[in-house]
Amino acid sequence: MSKRQIFDQVSDMETQIGELYEQLGDLKGKLSHLLEEKHRLEMENHHLRSRLEQADDDFKENEVVNETSNIPGEGYDNLARLYEEGFHICNVHFGTPRREEDCLFCLEFLNKTK
Ligand SMILES: [Zn+2]
Question: Which residues form a coiled coil (predicted)?
Fold first, then answer.
């Protein structure tokens, strides 16, 4: 192998190393973009999860409010009035006249509903 050939080979290797170094820089850039994107997605995911939990809590609170505002609600008032007017509201004799007697089933039902 002549000195000239050796010199050419070394020169080729220099070029290749330069290209590899460039590619390495490229890859580093892409990797840091990927890590930034991953971080951004994690933050977004965390944010969305807490929003979802908040929405779920609000929904449950709403349900409780609706339930409590319905009892004693209009339905209870109507049944209590019906009982006062002398009719059964229990599921045993519902809608039939009470004949001036208190009905234990009706009273129990009213207490339960209240
Ligand atoms: Zn009754």
Answer: 24-58
Q: What is the pLDDT of residues 58-92, one digit of tens each?
A: 877 777 666 655 555 778 888 888 899 999 998 88
- Mapping DSSP onto H, E and C, the string for the chain reads CCHHHHHHHHHHHHHHHHHHHHHHHHHHHHHHHHHHHHHHHHHHHHHHHHHHHHHHHHHHHHHHHHHHHHCCCHHHHHHHHHHHCCECCCCCCCCCECCCCCCHHHHHHHHHHC
Q: How many domains does the chain have?
A: 2
pLDDT band at 17 (very low <50, low <70, confident <90, very high): very high
Cα of 113 vs centre of ligand 1, distance in Å, is: 14
Residue list, annotated binding site for Zn(2+) = 88, 90, 103, 106
Q: Structural domain of residue 15, as residue ranges?
A: 1-69
Residue ranges with CB less than 5 Å from ion ligand 1: 88, 90, 93, 103, 105-106
